[in-house]
Amino acid sequence: MAAIPPVCFVCPGPIVDPVMCVYCHTTFCRPCLDASVGQCGQCTRILFDEEGRREIVPVPVVVHQRWRPLFWLAAMAILVGAIVAPAVWRGLQTQPVPRTVFPLSGVSPVEPTVVLGSRGSGRGQLERPCGVAIDRGGRAVVVDSGNNRIQVLSSQDGSVLLTIGVHGSEDGQFASPYAATIDYEGRIIVADTDNHRIQVFTREGSFLFTFGSNGAKDGQFHRPHGVAVGRLGRIIVADTDNHRIQVFTREGSFLFKFGSHSQQDGGFSFPRGVAVDHEGRIIVADTNNHRVQIFSREGRLLSKFGSGGRREAEFLLPSSVSVGFDGQLVVADWGNHRVQGFSRDGEFLFKIGSSQGQAAGQFSNAQGVAVDGEGRIFVADTENHRVQIFPGTWR
After folding, report:
1. What's the pLDDT at 326?
2. Model confidence at 140, in pLDDT bands (50, 70, 90)?
3. For the ranges 36-40, 159-163, 166-170, 306-310, which has the lowest average pLDDT?
């Protein structure tokens, strides 16, 4: 019987230099895995760590003689594609993309499809929620700041799926937590602000470990407000009252920092929000400088947008930023009681909310924002003690 040539999950074509994900056993060409920056195209786990390839294994492959011409033709095609594709992509990025967005002035016509929570301390109730994150299962991980806990809620009906923490300073306890993020393994990572630390939990809410303490040395924090996960599973922390960003391994070991207290480009004044886009860029809500700054994964300033004010594309204490699946940036414009949307380059696209209020679609000091895989926008409407979910028609 003739041998069947192995096929790459990404190309798809006969495999060149095959490797296999140890989690889901999907087989790839090594160049295809490199091009996806180490992310498995099947189970979406990150397979590289800071020291290089770790969670892939070489796969022996036997190519039958009848398939060898096709094998080498595929290899040449991949090589040419690796050279040509980046140039083509750069060209495509310069082309305008038609979008459907909200009107650029006045009150947004969009009302929330779901509202989660009401004021209180019972299950499913909220007291000044400041942050929200969405996991791959569509669960809303809400930072219930005033109740010193995390509540995991169904994004469909608001039912309580999980509660983590009580007030305190022991492992698994919180003091005014502000933000949370979900990593590629489903771990829940929390900025435990007034305990000056980051805590990490399993998807089911079991405590794993904590890192950080009060101070200004490398690896220490002073009231951290923002947390995000970057390439290779790195944990990026907005170390708010130290006016800097710190970057750690997935295990919490310090790697590097950037920024200092300044109004100059690359400096910060009480940064509260941080996110990482699909290119690995670090986006920072530079809160008291009323702007958003974008950095390379190494911490080099790339661009900035926004200034203090109430007009479109201006901010008053931006407190959180999230990245949509297509690279658009959504910013919680805390002091203006609204959410604003921008292109990956900072071009204004839309806004939700225009004045402080309690009606559907209005906010009162909304401090947290997240975007799920469907483009839905989740807003932690802090002083209204609720989370509002808006449809994905803004894209």
Report:
1. 81
2. very high
3. 36-40
Pull the structure tokens for residue 331. 């910013």
Contacts of 72 (CB under 8 A, 6+ apart): none
Where does the pLDDT of residue 106 fall: very low under 50, low under 70, confident under 90, or very high at 90 and above?
Answer: very low
Q: What is the pTM of this model?
A: 0.75
**The pair of three-digit structure tokens given for residue 118, joined into one six-digit string:** 């009401």
**Residue 373: which residues within 8 A CB-CB, separation 6 or more?**
134, 136, 325
Closest of 139, 189, 137 to residue 161, by C-alpha: 139
Q: Convert the chain into a string of H (helix), E (strand) and C (coil).
A: CCCCCCECCCCCCECCCEEEECCCCCEEEHHHHHHCCCECCCCCCECEECCEECCEEECCCCCCHHHHHHHHHHHHHHHHHHHHHHHHHHHHHCCCCCCCCCCCCCCCCCCCCEEECCECCCCCCECCCCEEEECCCCEEEEEEHHHCEEEEEECCCCCEEEEECCECCCCCCECCCCEEEECCCCCEEEEEHHHCEEEEECCCCCEEEEECCECCCCCCECCCCEEEECHHHCEEEEEHHHCEEEEECCCCCEEEEECCECCCCCCECCCCEEEECCCCCEEEEEHHHCEEEEECCCCCEEEEECCECCCCCCECCEEEEEECCCCCEEEEEHHHCEEEEECCCCCEEEEECCCECCCCCCECCCCEEEECCCCCEEEEEHHHCEEEEECHHHC
* CA atoms of 196 and 237, how far apart (whole Å): 11
Backbone angles phi, psi at 176, to 5 degrees: 55, 55
